[in-house]
């Protein structure tokens, strides 16, 4: 008995010690998401998270088998979001102050959050991102001589209809357009990209009308985004 | 003369009426005249079968890149990037494939955090570049 128990562990420790430990750690019980780490695609799976094995007493479990007993196999099939997983009213809202932030770096961060690429539930064909509010858009900064040299071009469609203006001219005229132009260039082009762009809200002053959505500050990891000097 | 495509036998015969029914069956849901008129339907169906051949092979590639993207964002939430994470897993001889890893990162956050901690032994620092969100 003692030797029978000892020999498998001896063998396993000789050949694949860590592998054996990892298997037992990973086969841990499935828990509902406690505070701290969220299970991010819960919403459509809520009904399925209580498998029969939790409700049926041990003696009667032989009456069920397979999927009925343990719940559907969600670990070996690639998850695709259902409608309940991307309801617009339950999306996060972020707010960011653009004062003295480098334009491109800010736009990149915003685009990542709008598209949903920071979440493990990212799906390219579905809008899984968040809303982003930008305030103080007229104070966004650029480095070097871009303020007087960066050109914004548009064309009316007619011959000779190209119009250009520099960064500071556009900033005086319509400052929101600068941030919008930057972010639109970083979002995907197409039907979904156009819808994602509507999730960006840019405002000129420090006020925004979205207090009811309780926006949280946008987490920014870029260390060079703040313009110094 | 005869050739197989899409599991169906296409006969190259002067009498087009022979496999018209098969073509129209495959052309269901096509736009405009491509679902009703044989000359156009035949072209579109041949193209559709070519695309389906190509995309059966592409689908495997696309799914794997989706898993990699999901694992990447899952590990970055814990401060590690995908490359260092996979390197650490390979060193520890954890042979979980990317499909399962991506599902773990979504459905089983605690197990995934344990995996990230396991792979963290094999590199200095966090592996997360300073600029990434």
TrEMBL record, chain A:
Task: Please cite one Gene Ontology biological process associated with this protein.
Answer: negative regulation of translation
One GO cellular component assignment for this chain's record is: cytosolic large ribosomal subunit
* One example GO MF annotation: mRNA binding
Q: Which CDD domains match?
A: Ribosomal_L13
Query: Which stretches are tagged as biased composition: Basic residues?
Result: 148-157
Q: Which domain of life is it from?
A: Eukaryota
- Renumbered to this chain, region (Disordered) spans 148-168, 207-229
Q: Which family does it belong to?
A: Belongs to the universal ribosomal protein uL13 family.
| PANTHER family membership | LARGE RIBOSOMAL SUBUNIT PROTEIN UL13M, RIBOSOMAL PROTEIN L13
Could you tell me what this protein is called?
Large ribosomal subunit protein uL13c
Native source species = Miscanthus lutarioriparius
UniProtKB/TrEMBL annotation, chain B:
Classification via Gene3D superfamilies: 6.10.160.10, Ribosomal protein L20
A GO CC term attached to the entry: ribosome
User: What is the stated purpose of this protein?
Assistant: Binds directly to 23S ribosomal RNA and is necessary for the in vitro assembly process of the 50S ribosomal subunit. It is not involved in the protein synthesizing functions of that subunit.
Q: Which InterPro entries match?
A: Ribosomal_bL20, Ribosomal_protein_bL20_C
The protein, known as: 50S ribosomal protein L20
* Top-rank taxon, per record: Eukaryota
* Keywords of this entry: Ribonucleoprotein, Ribosomal protein, RNA-binding, rRNA-binding
Q: Name one GO biological process term.
A: translation
Record Pfam families: Ribosomal_L20
State the organism named in the record: Miscanthus lutarioriparius
